[in-house]
Design goal:
The chain has 181 residues and is an alpha/beta fold. α1 packs across α2. The longest helix is centred in the N-terminal third of the chain and has 18 residues. It is globular, with a radius of gyration of 16 Å. The structure holds inosinic acid (IMP) and magnesium ion. Magnesium ion binds next to loops.
């Protein structure tokens, strides 16, 4: 077992806990979409690792696609003005789409994505987010699948970064405030 990174104040969810929860989410999705095929779209880069584990826990025909977005704003705060840096390759028309997100914070990014996807005539759009932060959301986003609730602190690991670091930690933890202050 790898030692906990010195920049991590505490581990919130271990590798084993994450794997178990993602398997449950995959089983739930499999049950909910029986007889259908899915297009799972992950939001780069944070959700790539979650997506890789989630699709392997879904026992249905699944296609994978990716989007990259950036949100304009003052510093670390999401502004809700989202720019598409990379769009999906597949058409969403008539597809059952699941957006795989790493963390729901203000909800502004997901609100933009859901509205954008709904204009493309999919059969359905739902959200699977690994984490939901305990904050008062700025946008009313319905997430059908939520992995874990997490505290309103800066979270890293299992895809989540600070300044592009820590994405490869196998667990999810709270970053020490002195690292980003
Ligand atoms: P929202 O538009 O405020 O919901 O922003 C969500 C995005 O911000 C996520 O997809 C993450 O990329 C990023 N984010 C929000 N909180 C954290 C965090 O605690 N650690 C790492 N990234 C975060
Ligand atoms: Mg993200």
């Amino acid at each position: 077992m790898q030692a906990v990174h010195e920049d991590v104040a505490r581990v919130l969810f271990t590798d084993e806990e994450i794997q178990a929860r993602v398997k449950e989410m995959g089983a739930q999705i499999t049950a909910d979409y029986q007889g259908q095929s899915l297009l799972v779209v992950s939001v780069l880069r944070g959700a790539a690792i979650f997506m890789a584990d989630l699709v392997r826990a879904i026992d249905l025909p699944v296609e994978m696609d990716y989007m990259a977005v950036s949100s304009y704003g003052n510093g670390a705060k999401s502004s809700g003005v989202v720019q598409i840096l990379k769009d999906t390759t597949s058409s969403l028309e008539g597809r059952h789409v699941i957006i795989a997100e790493d963390i729901l914070d203000s909800g502004l990014t997901l609100e933009f994505l859901i509205e954008n996807f709904e204009l493309r005539n999919p059969a359905s759009v739902e959200v699977a987010t690994l984490l939901r932060k305990d904050v008062k959301p700025q946008a009313d986003v319905h997430c059908r699948y939520i992995g874990f609730e997490c505290p309103n602190e800066f979270i890293v690991g299992y895809g989540l970064d600070y300044a592009e670091r820590y994405r490869n930690l196998p667990y999810i933890g709270v970053l020490k405030p002195e690292i980003y202050q």
